[in-house]
Design brief:
It is built from 13 helices and twelve strands. The protein has 383 residues and is α/β, with parallel strands linked by helices. It has two domains: 3-245, Aspartate Aminotransferase, domain 2; 248-382, Aspartate Aminotransferase, domain 1 (Alpha-Beta Complex). Strands 1-7-6-5-4-2-3 form a seven-stranded mixed β-sheet, sandwiched between helices.
Length: 383
Amino acid sequence: MSTRKLGINTICSHVGEIKDEQFKGAVSPIYMSTSYQFEDVEVKRYPRYFNTPNQEFLSKKIAALEHAESAMIFGSGMAAVSTTFLAFLKAGDHLVIQNPLYGGTSNFVREELPKYGIEFTFTDGYKVSDFEKAIQPNTKLIHIETPSNPLLTITDIRAVAELAKSKQIVTSIDNTFASPVVQKPIDLGIDIVIHSATKYLGGHSDILAGAVATSQEHIHTIWNVGKNLGGSLSDFMVWMLERSMKTLALRVKAQNRNAKKLAKFLHNHPDVKHVYYPGLKDHPEHELAKSQMKDYGAMMSFEFNKNIDASKFLKALQLIKPSMSLAGVESTMLLPALTSHALLSQEERDRLGISHSLIRFSLGIESKKDIINDLEQAIKRVK
């Protein structure tokens, strides 16, 4: 049966599982071996080749969720990003990359690509015209991120994909903030989908991993570089990720419900100056988000009025964790200027609008009432 005919919860819970033929267990067995037979076998398996049984089968689940032909799992989101970029770019090539986006990706481009003789241009914004303006004759790859980290800007995926195809340029997207539950960029024309699987795919703040989903042809190109860079994931962590992804759709849908309610609560709060969330009708790309996303995601950012110190507010929280990373079942907050975008210069953060008072909010699955109560008590304590 085609996986496209299966419901998303069925894909999460069944596609990519390894059948336990020996003991008939209900979950996939773990194959921890780093050494496999090489004679009289169809596939020569080796962990660094991304093709151990657990790696191979989980890749099928990720590909099915993204409507891709194939997928690969990496040791981190940055391993997935860096391997993909180096697979499609060589000395003399040019990359067009969206601004704003995740600070780690931005830092990789600025710090590492010049060492390889690869040119790049950060766009002036995230409109299609910004990408078109940045394209050069030697542009080989366009990379976007939507919703973006941390300002939740929305890029027109279909329009960027069409622009790139008209010029025979490969496209990639960081789909971490949305997850495949909310957004399927390949259906909108994007070539390569990248995830920090540490986030929603893992979902429990206990796995560091990355993933790429794309065509079989592109996967082969990425694999040729990946096997040399060595950014694969241990089979135990692959097994942990497969287990976690069984509840992906359930978790994300619960988080999305909380996010919509909390965005409205913050938007109407007298002490909040601004909320960045595509589900709000006053978000500048609300209609675009509605057209290309199945929901609005569970990430947002906000800023208080000057009467509340953001750092003191985070320390006053009792339920919500002031913690690095995002997308776990527990709600978390952080200051991007001190964490995810700390590697950017102050000038660059100012230009992007990432102030020291900006708070990034990742909604968990807790009761909405309990989250609101924690926000209210923390605000009262620091006013």
